[in-house]
Design a protein that fits this description.
Elements lengths: L4 H9 L4 H8 L3 H8 L6 H11 L13 H19 L3
Length: 88
């Protein structure tokens, strides 16, 4: 099992529930919850979740999902959201 706290942080940063991410990724909410708690998803599911939240799917498989990569994903996603909403 891996530590995917970054995944929960990214979801919360976007104001989404686990159910909303699961729906966007076309997976069951209980499965998504297990992934947030550390279950490694299949490549197909990793791609769906990454698409739903806007990050590189390979983050799931990088060694300990390098903290710097996690932070970069969070920052880049925040910047994208600010550009969409016009907030700086």
């Amino acid at each position: 099992m891996r530590d995917y706290q970054w995944l929960e942080a990214l979801r919360l940063q976007q104001g989404l529930t686990q159910a909303e991410v699961a729906r966007r990724a076309k997976i069951d909410r209980t499965y998504y919850t297990k992934i947030e708690r550390g279950k490694t998803p299949s490549v197909r599911v990793a791609m769906r979740i990454a698409d739903a939240l806007g990050f590189r799917w390979t983050l799931f498989y990088e060694s300990h999902c390098a903290l710097s990569a996690q932070k970069t994903a969070l920052r880049s996603r925040a910047g994208t959201d600010e550009r969409k909403t016009g907030r700086a």
